[in-house]
Amino acid sequence: MISIVLIDDHVLVRQGYELMIGLAPDMQLLGTAGSALAGLQLIHRLHPDVAVVDICLPDMSGVELTERITRGGLKVGIVIATMLADRRLPRRMLKVGALGYVTKECSQDELLCAIRLAAAGRRYLAATVAQEVAIASLSDGCSPFDRLSRRELEVAMMLARGQTLTAIARQLSLSPKTVSTHKQRLLQKLQLEHVVGLVQLMGAHGLLELPQPFCPAPARMQ
Questions:
Q1: Which end of the chain is least crowded, N or C, by CB within 10 Å?
Q2: DSSP characters for 131-170?
Q3: Which helix (H) or strand (E) element contains residue 50?
Q4: Which backbone phi and psi does 101 adopt, to 5 degrees?
């Protein structure tokens, strides 16, 4: 039986995953979390075989969470399930220790396949993701975010979510001065003057889940 934890800040997404996993006779859901730190605590306490992780989480990114899990020697296969579209992000996630990468548009069969392979220590990329990775490796062009170090990308994602330097420093166990230096360097590398421009650039390159426009319910007919 493959034991699983889900780490995603969207309740409806977690509920959808729970339904999919509940239909698989060889899988057992141990718990869910809406933040990276809560998910890390679940992994330490429950020792699952696989963790299904989103990249955009409220307290730290899935990149940092995956790296912490790998660095801590925790024996859990990480499957990334995200809406983010940047073709270079899957390569970055595999580099820091993830075994699977699918989009939230994938089918139930594809998600379960990724989980099973991760539990066996094998890698899985969704077909569309694998194609994008191949294109990225052959392309002469490059993403501006390729210029950033891992830590700078981590800080950039947290800044783009509106977190303060103090909050980022606390979560990354750094001093506010060090975080400020990372901020200055990443903005300089990206040729930006402020965080507003960073948000726009990250959204344009698929590195940030932008909020969906509010769609009011239709008025009821009298």
A1: C
A2: HHHHHHHH-S---GGGGS-HHHHHHHHHHHTT--HHHHHH
A3: strand 50-53
A4: -150, 115
For residues 132-157, b (16+ Cβ closer than 10 Å) or e, as one string? bbeebeeeeeebebeebeebbbbbbb
Residue 191 φ then ψ, to 5°: 60, 45
pLDDT for 86 equals 62
Q: CATH assignment of 144-204?
A: 1.10.10.10
Could you tell me the fold of the domain covering 2-138?
Rossmann fold (3.40.50)
Lookup: tokens for 40: 């890390």
- List Cβ neighbours of 193 (8 Å cut-off, separation of 6 or more): 187
Instruction: For 57-100, write each residue's pLDDT tens digit.
Output: 888 888 889 988 988 889 999 999 988 756 667 777 888 889 99
Span 129-158, pLDDT tens digits: 765 665 555 454 567 777 888 788 888 888
